[in-house]
């Protein structure tokens, strides 16, 4: 199946009244398992690629070219399962966004997600996120829309405004991005079932929801999300968390140690396994240097 056919296949799935479940993929085996289990779509998790591919926390350290090459491999392994790709902030301003869209489109992805965080971004379920303005992100969206050569490539606009600005501001941004032409809207990290429902009621666009184990958003059932009208539910941490748990418990047994002190229960604790605390100390060192 060609990339264009996979994009059309994803658009057909999204037109269904049922929510499309997209598990997180980050390496070859996770992609092959998603294909073998015949999911309608897969989601390339930036956090999973950072941690599994590069041993890094999801704080904007992985480059565009590294992500594109991982996407290219995942597309190949997934076969006829369409891939939704996390492209972070687009890796810069409008010109960088144009190149990002071109590169991901060339890699064969069916959809690309861009977010309104300032660079360097952070995992959506970590604190202290910084945003660019609504107008600045709309310009990046316009550049992305102009850059695609296949109109069936789905552009997903993600807003991280819920944390720093509140749910009302996040919904306002979501509707502005939909009005600018985004095919789908992703309001990151709603807190509580009431906010999940409010987004569904107040955002006038197809919606994606991110269900992270131990994250800020409650894990809603596919039935509930279908009833609310969500188009896509991504589960980026489920395969990654299961793999990390199995490796940690197996290795602890080999080492004769108790794995419990290292078992993560939140995204921040998971990223501590790949050095978040050390990178945070470095960031603080350079933030305060010269003060």
From TrEMBL:
CDD domains with a match to the protein in the record: ICL_PEPM
Tagged with keyword ATP-binding: no
InterPro entries referenced in this protein's UniProt entry, alphabetically: ICL/PEPM, Isocitrate_lyase_ph_CS, Pyrv/PenolPyrv_kinase-like_dom, Pyrv_kinase-like_dom_sf
Matching PROSITE patterns: ISOCITRATE_LYASE
Keyword check for Lyase: yes
A GO term for molecular function: oxo-acid-lyase activity
A Pfam family this chain is assigned to: PEP_mutase
Keywords: Lyase
Name under which the protein is recorded: Isocitrate lyase/PEP mutase family protein
Source species: Antrihabitans stalactiti
